[in-house]
Amino acid sequence: MATAQMSLPLPxxxxxxxxxxxxxxxGTLSTPxxxxxxxxxxxxxxHARRKRHKRTFSEDERIQAQEYVKKVEDEDADDISEPExxxxxxxxxxxxxxxxxxxxxxxxKHRYRATDSQIKRAHRKKVLRHHPDKRAAxxxxxxxSFFKCIQKAFxxxxxxxxxxxxxxxxxxxxxxxxxxxxxxxxxxxxxxxxGPVFESEARFSKKxxxxxxxxxKSSKEEVEExxxxxxxxxxxxxxxxxxxxxxxxxxxxxxxxxxxxxNNNARKKRKTEDTARLRQLVDDCLAGxxxxxxxxxxxxxxxxxxxxxxxxxxxxxxEEAKKAKExxxxxxxxxxxADKAEKAEGKKAKEAAxxxxxxxxxxxxxxxxxxxYLLPEGQEASAKRxxxxxxxxxxxxxxxxxxxxxxLAGKLTGLKLADDVxxxxxxxxxxxxGEGKLKTEEMKILGS
Length: 448
Prior knowledge:
The chain is rod-shaped, with a radius of gyration of 59 Å. The longest helix is centred in the last third of the chain and has 66 residues, at 305-370. Helix content is 62%, strand content 0%. The protein is an all-alpha fold. Helix 6 runs antiparallel to helix 8 (145-158), helix 8 (145-158) packs across helix 9 (160-168) and helix 15 (305-370) packs parallel to helix 17.
């Protein structure tokens, strides 16, 4: 190692200096000792490391850089470590508006809650892993598109204005409201499902802190404060991030103004839709909040006790009247059913009597037919004879009731001879003539 020597003049002694005369020794020098000195320091350690592992300067620097990267990754593995999606690694850097900046930096679980320190650490970790020089040194064929995505994400998230614009449209942070069925399963389910929804929306509030939804033990004042806050919610949310790119050239000013107006109208529309969405969300939560119903019920109970007592009395009277009416209707129904049953029985008996009468009439008509229409056996009855006999039979049957019809049928049952059948019919005809029910001139054959 080359050495350099420099001669420096001693300082000029001040006037009146008399040290040699005034000097007085108060001690003596110690006896000199001989010791071995060893080289130390980072440069000597680097030299020793290279000698031990037989590395060149470039090899040692590369290996040390890799170990440093691993050390950084291990240190940040606690809160900013996420597996990388292969699809995300192949993103086109030109489509930077469509990328998830938090996911690019590995901050998906932190998102808008990520601190500046976490963003910087995540960026450093990603750069150490995906820097083009690093990729080239490891022989990877990956281009620098994802590295550009990393730089763009870092640019957006470290700029307060740009980050707020991105957070305004970051749908991955939104929490969907629960269904009415899911929220109404139990009291705890309502607060457990709706609480995260309002915590997610609270990030857009101009006023902080934002009241919490609370639970079933929250007071009326706390609940009213919560809903009053959200019904008058002031949001800083904007939608510039979704604007169409405005041309940078100055030649087509009309086109530039047209795009700016279009973007402005689109922002207003999205803002209006978001306000309506939030209002509907609050209305849905209010409609399913059992605390509101409880408070209203308590208020009505305190103010309208007399009315409630009157309603209770009216209800009691109405129930008694209803009960009496039901009892009366029951008795009436039982009577109607009894009458109906009796009527059915009468109808059934009447129908049976009618059927019996038909059967008896067939027996009566059949008796004269079986007796050869009251002619001696072997003599053929003419049509006139048949009509006359049947006419007399019909005349007799028309004058007697069902009981008499049954008695007459009983007498004729089993008789086959014309004289026997004729005698029965003549006897019946004479009986009717004697009672004045039948006239002699009405009969042609019977009764003569």
